[in-house]
Amino acid sequence: MTGVPDILWLEEIRKEDIPSVGGKGASLGEMASIGLPVPPAFVVTSQAFRRFLVQTGLEKPLFELLESLDVDDNDLLESAAQKAKDLVHKAKMPDDIKSEISIAYEKLSRTGEIVAARSSATAEDLPDASFAGQQETVLNIRGIENLLNGIQTCWASLYGARAIYYRSKQGFDHHIVNIAVVVQQLINSEKAGVLFTSHPVTGESLTIIEGSWGLGEAVVSGAVSPDNYVFDRRLERTTDRLISPKIIEIVADGNYGTITRDVEKSRQEMQVLSDDEVKRLATYGIVSEEHYGIPQDMEWAIVGDKIFILQSRPITTIKGVGAVKKENNTGSADAVILQGQGASPGIASGPVIIIDDVKDIGKVKEGDIMITRMTNPDMVPAMRKVAAIVTDEGGMTCHAAIVSRELGTPAVVGTRKATQILKDGQVITVDGEKGLIYEGVIAQQVPVVGSAQVQIASAPAKIITATSVKVNVSMPEAAQRAAATGADGVGLLRIEHLILGLNKTPNWYIQNHREEEFISELMNGIKVVLDSFPGKPVWVRTLDAPTDEFRNMQGGENEPIEHNPMLGWRGIRRDLQSPAQFKLQIDTFKRLWDLGYDNLGIMFPMVSHPREFIKAKELFRQAGVDVENVDLGIMIEIPASAVLVDDFIKAGIKFASFGTNDLIQYTIAIDRNNENVTDMYWPKHPAVLALIDQAIQACRKGGVEVSICGQAGSEPDMVTWLVEHGITSVSSNIDAIPKIRETVARTEQRIILDAARRPYGC
């Protein structure tokens, strides 16, 4: 993106601005725009960070450190991370960037000179990638020199061990992930915490609020076991509360940073929130959830009688709408040796490994039960291995709870004395739903990994809809979680994430005669998703990586420099002009079909005329593919493809899917990443809806399945309109599936009822 300034104020930012301000910055701007009480802030954009890397000459040495790094070797990972962070921290910030930050800080200081610097990476707090705590936050900053140092600390944290590990495992390319920094007035809260707008496991209409004294970091980190409040949104009242002893609090200290101090005894067991405060917090949560269309995980702070909202991000761990609490025959009460708060459901058995310090995580083996006082983001590599997690401190919203739910690992938090009672090597069973720890192996179980065992649980009853509800998948690691939603298939699997993760362009493999290696990598990644959806359609989109993404990869040295890559050499237009690159993809798909994966469908992006589809189909035929007996379709993301949809049907497409993100921009000439026109981005513009409706009716008449896989497919109001207009299927982000399936079911039922109630003969 060009022309983005180094500084953006919250008032200028919307949720579409993630490439410039990261997930956190975009969320704050969006919340401020709908009137939530967000403290004033500005963002040092990712463009400023990238310019810092370029002007200081850091790009080459940084990426050389990370290239081919074995992130599973903890010693190598820690060494490379420390070197990378030192490079960033010790580099001199360019004077012009310093000057702009100083001017913005002076302006912000008029409302309060104490601020926080919060990292906002372009690969965090996303709907399909929202692990907690990957980068640094520096609280309690006073003075410009301290602020500049805090910003550079945030920048350096992009290359911390946990962040490098996370990106590698999630398939994000280090070269293209940037970081912005939110500089926000610090709320020196008397009490603070986290809330889930809906139950983070079942999706029920229960707002879960956790709070403690001081700054919210104590709750988020799990340093304290907070009070827990359950607000039933249907009854509009608090239905449950658990008041915990709150031994410590985190507070601002001096001009930079925080300290942890003991809470005086008179406040330790005092209730943090009144019923009125719980209800007000729940109301803000409902506003945020209804705006985003999906349940939210929010951070809040209170000073006096004033509430502030500090953050809002999607909950990615809800298992399904209507999930009910199930009784387990786990074991008898006599076998219970410890109790805490069930934070992530599931039952697992295995040997205890006690972790006193992050340096001990190298001792963790597959299938162990991790026992620790509290987890932190540096422990994520070990958390991926274990069968279950138990902590002394923390609540439903602490790091251990959030990451465990994301991983699908049973977890019990807030036991207070697990590290004291349990011993290394002791075999235990953890019930992550009830919050119980049993001696030995309990209940009928089956092996999962290592020596650990996990109980088979029955899934909640699925809502049946005539309109198929599919899921978007970005990377193989997300396939099992996507399949667990009960989705009717995959409406979009983006292979560019697989290819970008290789850090080498397809042309690099061709030039180095390593085509088999490329095909094998791509085939294995797609196969993981196909295996997760047996008998269900999986639509794979052919390569659609813009030239600016390829340019940072090996083999990308000769990529053309395009003024606007979004309108450039990408999608099917590039594949048809690069037959060797296209053939690598075709050979991959053919091998999968030859293995019997007849649920594989191929979708061509950026198609503007039927002749492009016909040419692509012919290249498949020439490669030995029986094109009449496989599913080949198109993305409708250019107005031309919507207008010419009848001709595409005559050309033999088996399906079509709307890519609304691009279709909207191309139809109304709005670049949603251009801050000058962002507020004009209008998903339900009449012209956009007219094109979509025209294409739906043509596809239905021609007997062709028509779907949607753009962001609009995850928005209930748009999905309601699509179902009303006869769309065959919708494909949504993983976290949105429960709400979208419910939206589809309600819309279909209303259509049937309206028809039944219509007077006879009308």
Automatic annotation (TrEMBL):
Domain Pyruvate phosphate dikinase AMP/ATP-binding: 19-320
Protein's UniProt keywords contain Cell membrane: no
Keyword Protease tagged: no
All copies of domain PEP-utilising enzyme mobile, residue ranges: 365-435
Domain (PEP-utilising enzyme C-terminal): residue spans on this chain: 454-748
Pathway membership: Carbohydrate biosynthesis; gluconeogenesis
Domain of life: Archaea
Reaction catalyzed: pyruvate + ATP + H2O = phosphoenolpyruvate + AMP + phosphate + 2 H(+)
InterPro entries assigned to the protein according to its UniProt record, in alphabetical order: ATP_grasp_subdomain_1 (IPR013815), PEP-util_enz_mobile_dom (IPR008279), PEP_synth (IPR006319), PEP_util_AS (IPR018274), PEP_util_C (IPR000121), Phosphohistidine_dom_sf (IPR036637), PPDK_AMP/ATP-bd (IPR002192), Pyrv/PenolPyrv_kinase-like_dom (IPR015813)
One annotated GO molecular function: pyruvate, water dikinase activity
Cofactor: Mg(2+)
UniProt EC number: 2.7.9.2
Key words of the record: ATP-binding, Kinase, Magnesium, Metal-binding, Nucleotide-binding, Pyruvate, Transferase
One GO term of the biological process aspect: gluconeogenesis
Biological function: Catalyzes the phosphorylation of pyruvate to phosphoenolpyruvate.
PANTHER family: PHOSPHOENOLPYRUVATE SYNTHASE
Family membership noted in the UniProt record: Belongs to the PEP-utilizing enzyme family.
Protein name: Phosphoenolpyruvate synthase
Organism of derivation: Methanospirillum purgamenti
